[in-house]
Amino acid sequence: MPDLEADPPDLLILDTPRPADLSAVQRALGETLSDTRAPWIRVGGGPPAFGNLPEPVARRLIAYYANGGQQNLRPLFAYLRAWHDGKPTDSIAPPTELAETGYYHPAAPNPFERVEDYLAWGADRWAPSAPRVAFAIHRGALVDDQLRLIDALVARSEARGQAPMAFWMDDRDPEALTNALGPARSDVLVNLQHMQNGPARQAEFLALGIPVLTALTWREGDRTHWRASTSGITPRTAATMLTVPESWGMTDPLVIAAIENGEPAPLPEQLDTLLDKVDRLARLRHLPAPEKRLALMFWNHPDGEKNVAASNLNVPRSLAKLTSALREAGYAVPERGETELIETAQRLLGGYYRPETLDTLLADKLAISLPLDNYLGWLTELPEPSRRPLVERWGDPAAHWALRQIEGQPHFVIPAIRLGNVLLLPQPPRAGRPGEAYHDSKVPPDHLYLATYQALREEFGADALIHFGTHGTQEWLPGKDRGLAVGDYPFLALGDLPVFYPYIQDNIGEAIQARRRGRAVIISHQTPPFAPAGLYDELRDLHSLIHEYQQLDEGAVQEATAEQIRQKAVEAKMLADLGWDDARMRAEPQRFMQALHDHLHEMAQANVPLGLHTFGEPAQPEHRLATVMQQLGQPFLLALGLAEDEPIAEDFAGLQASLPYRTLQRFLRDGERLDTIDDARLREQLERALELDAQLAETGELQALLAGLAGGFVAPGPGGDPVRNPGVPSGRNLYAFEADKLPTRAAYEAGAEAFEQLLESYRQDHEGKSPEKLAFSLWSSEAMRHLGNLESQVLHALGVRPVWDAGGRVQALEIIPAAELGRPRIDIVVQVTSVYRDQFDGFMRLLAEVVERLSRLDEPGNVLASNSRSLATRLRDQGLGAAEAERLSQLRLFGNEPGDYGTGVSQLTLDSTSWKEESELAQQFLSRLQYAYGTGSWGEKVDGQNLFAEQLKGVQAAVMARSSELNGVLATDHPFEFLGGLSLAVRHLDGTSPSLYISDLRKREPRTTGAAGYLASELRSRYLNPQWIAAMQQEGYAGTLEVLNVANNLCGWQAADRSMVRADQWQALHDTFVKDQRALGVNEWFETHNPTAQTQLIERMVEAIRKGYWDAPAQTRRELAERWQALTTERGADAGEPVTREFIQQLASGFGLAPTPAQSPTESASSGAPEAGETVRGQVVQPLSEPTGEHDRLPLLLGASALLLLLLLGAGHQQRANRRITVLP
């Protein structure tokens, strides 16, 4: 700040555009303005002000400056000089007023105040059919005469035949946009300014009904700096210019300029990308539905050519529903049934698993093609930084395995089927083979991947693309974390094609990645409905016996009943679930009885999803009532006068007979009137029930998708778990929690309770000792649900607290003095997911800064400081300089390299025949997540060191949060990938596994539990529950893949931490889904809909046996082998890996079962697809001869011979049918 007294200016101008700017300037100046004699004026952020000037002079100076532009700034200086020198000012032009709302064009002599005048002036410049694009600019651009960007944008827009209209408006007017744009009939709105008055703008966006795009300016450097940056939008900018506008419905954020010489300088290639998108969206608005062409991509999940799925979505049934809705809306598409779609999708996937089938697919009109010359022409035009890695990694496109000669010219052959004007196709392999390098930023997309998207745009001529379900790979391709450049691979793949993305409403974090990196408009869809889990079979019997026991008087009969309960609990393996043993059970009989009773109640009251969701279709009426009952929760039960501690029912039939359900039935279905209810509490609950039921009944999903496809506006909306967050809408463009408010005040307070629970759980497990070092796994999707509870536990461990501003934004983290804290600080290691790194980097920077201060804090018993000193010593001993060693020793936050996604641990773990020792999994985890994040470095890898590994040494416990009623620890692979990965790594480094805990944040009150117990409860209450199984059976084909998913994730946990999965749990999986001990018709279900899924399920169990995780009884081994043989020989199921098949043949031989000639389709001929580490250099399709001859009873020799033959023929690394695709949290 200049010394205003020592060197007073002739005029001090304070330019404070927004109230926040005004506050910041006032804080910076303090009492300076009131003390100075220098003349000053202030414009913006509130009413104008002045000092040390005559009022008429000040008003005129303010008017000059506030209206700006050369027509005002030149006379301002002339007037100031004349007044200062005491000369006449009559000849100086008065201020030229710039209207609060107006329209600008660089070719017009002056701005326009009325839209009608602007349109009349431009009538001869634009064709009547020209796409009309409105650019919302800031009035200050004209005031400051900073029009370079706007002039370039308008010129380029007109050059491509658009009708541009740059306008500014009075943000205070709630109808400013409506008044400014209504008569213009704009097709697209592009926002270039910092819009204010959010509620009004959001309402106007809905009323206008046109797409609203976000255009941003990089203010951290020039254009060269932005192009080189790994992040296209800084955390400081993201909070206000990205997150908030997203919540209003703006989409497709694009950086179009960078500051040079004090004003925005256009990025030409980014401007063209923006305007290309405008053309596409305008075309959607005007092209009749029968003429529109749509491409629809589905996912191959879990890995395997028979598998088509998405998160909690019945994909085939949803596709059938969608084709019908499109047809009704006028699109030229025939209806297709679920069964036909399943068979077609599986044939299309076969083209990637068995490329020798591409010719047949082409002949059967199940493929499209792209001339190689077209691809080469596109490739040649790519920026060098994008083209070079492609060619280096994948070689010459002319040698690709997917090329076929068509009319004498090489073409890429792409599995796809035309359904009228809809092209249905699987997303191509990200890196040559299905499931390979799913999130690896070091690997650019394969030539075929990019050629497929090019074919959609150019050969098929798609007007829009639907990425169907959660989730695909395009948004995870290498490039900037946000604010992507046109040369980043997500944009290269997609081009200007509008994307609409049906996405589960509970996964906000990844949906935001699809919005920001995938250029997508999200169409959120509902989760499955929910019901209480209830109790079944042995659990029901135990519960009944406990109630019988409680009613008996002391004596022999009661003791006999108690012994019966104990025996049944042992038989049901309940002791292990509870963490008890036989000795303790008998030593503490009353405590055991109470613990068992409480546990049964918890399981009975747990939420269980009922099947899957079908896009655009509400759940069945009875399932909606069950969901509403779970949404209302305890207040509804209390209003009915029911006790809180007893289960409502033991199964769904009992639920329907219960008082809560019957009450909802009466008032929500049977038409009884609420005014007949005298109890105000109950009436209020039922009024809320009516609202919730209506919302569940009207998904809004198809309507939102059709609106987007028509070039309309898709309303924004929050996401979340519908039980934890009742009333969350569907059919919305999901937006995120404001990252700079993490953690909220409420979350920090709740985090204190959760942290005390964590300490107490650890002490109970470790003879009263407290932990000194904890690891935390932070996820974006979790943070958006619990708003920073787990982050708060990290802060409480450290002994720090947030400092919030008046708006709830975290400004800093302050250290709590040791005397106030009253306990030792706990050292921490924080592992963040890649999505968390992209979305909550602001909090990460605050956390890194306070951790570094704590590591230097001279305080008795400060374990962070002592651990940092010890590590610094080790690093110095290994050759690092003292200052560098000290800096590195203070880093505690680790994750992927910037721009990298995922760990590869899930894929590697489930590819169980490719590794022998679990240390290989640990090394994979440590390698991908070794990048440190601190104040002086962001994503730093230390040469010759793995700093993540060094910091993990000595970790005693690791913690992860679960806050969704839908996703536990077995629903996806991420829990074992990250929490399990931490266990793997610590065991690899220290020789013993850390204790694993789940911070259970699904309810209002937090609860901390051991991870193994959490898994056991989830498995028993949900996946072994006949209610869940019956609901999945109703889903047909799609339900079979959900069972396979559970087995995959159980296997993942088994490898990650052997203490997490017990032998009896594998046995229960076998007894339920192979032996069908509950007589649920499981085998018939798999045979009818998807025998390969049951084959893969069995192979997972067999792998657990083969790798020594499960010593299954002989009878179980026989049943597995017999069922697998029946499926592969009689039901046409695909077999898996050669090693697994050989082991099954050994099992069969040992039981005297005839060996089978079962063979996976991928072995019937060499796939020709490249290996993960292999660059394609030539055509590699090599047909193999079919096996001949009789199988003898020397299985070991036979297996060894078969393996040798496969290796010699280049098929030893064929596609692994059991590897599942990973999704990121």
What descriptive keywords fit this protein?
disordered C terminus; 6 domains; 1225 residues; Rossmann fold; seven-stranded mixed β-sheet; eight-stranded mixed β-sheet
* Sheet having the most strands: 8 strands, mixed
- Main sheet strand line-up: 30-29-28-27-24-31-32-33
Strand content: 5-15%
By secondary-structure content and strand pairing, the structural class works out as: alpha/beta
Domain count: the total is 6
Shape: globular
Multimeric state: single chain
Query: For the terminal residues, how far apart are their CA atoms?
Result: 46 Å
Structure summary, number of beta strands: 33
Spans where pLDDT lies below 50 across 5 or more residues: 1160-1167, 1170-1225
Mean pLDDT: 91
Radius of gyration: 33 Å
